[in-house]
Amino acid sequence: MPFFNKSSKADSEPSDLDREVAEAFVALGRRDKDAPIPAGLAKETLISMMFRHADMLSGTMQSAESAILYEIASHLAGVGNDSLTKGKDAEDLRQTGAVLLAAGRLQLALKVYEQLVQQDPTSHDDHTRLAALYRNANGEDMARDFLQSYFAKNPVEREFAGDSQPSKGAILSVTGYDKSIYKVGKRGDGSYKCYRSGGHFMLRYLVDMHDYDVTSYVVARDNLSRIQPTGKQDLLLNTIADPDTEHASLISLEKYVVGHPPASLINHPTEVLKTTRDGNYDRLHSIDGIRFPKTMRFASANVSSDELATAIETEGFEYPFIVRRTGTHTAVSTKLIEHRSALEAYITDADGEELYVIEFVENRSPEGHFTKMRFFAIDGALYPVVHHIDEVWNVHGGNRKTFMANNEWMLEKEQQFMNDPASILGDQVYGLLQSLPAMIGLDFFGFDFTILPDDNVLIFELNPAMRHSFDHADNFSYLEPHMQAVSDAFANMVDRKIAQARG
User: What is the pTM of this model?
Assistant: First the structure.
């Protein structure tokens, strides 16, 4: 029998091809000789075969070919036909959805994930992927409302260590969903993925969570005040990292921690809340040896660009200065403002979002270069991860493969910094930086900085929202042991805190 049975109009007649297909089914013993031949039998048979072949290809990891067949078969079946999801259980749907998503067949993937969350309404991953697809199709507001409503009622997901080895401990891993975003984006190989943007640091390369019994909790709409995690936990691991993007989540977690003190904790929410850019300026700019640029927050809603520009100038900011939207990273909204008209244009484009205005401190070397160094602070110790040199003031890591790779001395200097930071910074400056973890009060964070001619440390940024990965080590092998040192230090901190909690 054909896999699909579409109804046809009463006055439709089967085609010659429909009759030939019917005869073939009769010959195979799959159809009664005297059964009426429906119009469209050949088409339905073709659709059935294409879907079955697409399922087979997806099972053998031939994603691109499978996705093309799914798309063609779905178009042949007609808009609104349920043929893509008919008869599939949750795991089959999950595989089909992953194939379509990776191949960029986003409308079809959305349909599959809609069906999937109806059949299996408990998976956080399925809901976040559907939210990302909703955002792509219908906009941010609809996607956010869908996912916040889900997490507000279903914040908990549990995973347990595998049978191959005993669990190393019980972890309550906390994330938030206030203003962070789930997006659809492209990988380097051209395939598509869903990912979270903003608000958190990523655990993937820091610790293998499969070694632990993990309760994942997503804070949304103050659900912690109504639905509390159950079971004994050795460690509360707070990955919420941006107090602008996830302010409400951090406030909820802060109240929970006060009322339910954890046995052990990584990154107390109270300390994370202090790491806004203007908060960092308030507490760091007056420390001897540290230069933290003057930073103020301004609301751009319900005010004209002329009025806000005047307010900024009245606060003493002199051109050029830096403007960026709060809660953004990787320079996506960062701009050096040279004059009044550029400032007013930026304010207009901000569309009511809050802005940071940041003093620009000239830090170009006599040779015309800009330098940015980075440490991760983990469990009170510093780990070097970056020594970038560039020709532009807004230094970012992508230049290592272009500008730095063509200047061997720059790579050699980075290697020197990674191997022996004090040899670059000097003992006094290095000692000052080693005191930062105690000042900041976080178990894990990163900070970017350079050294000014007067030996003061110019800090560009300091927060736990910095990403750790091995991406650059693939092309620059000297980075590998230092990236591994970061991973090892974080994993060791997790184990130490669990052991401490267990006494």
Answer: 0.85
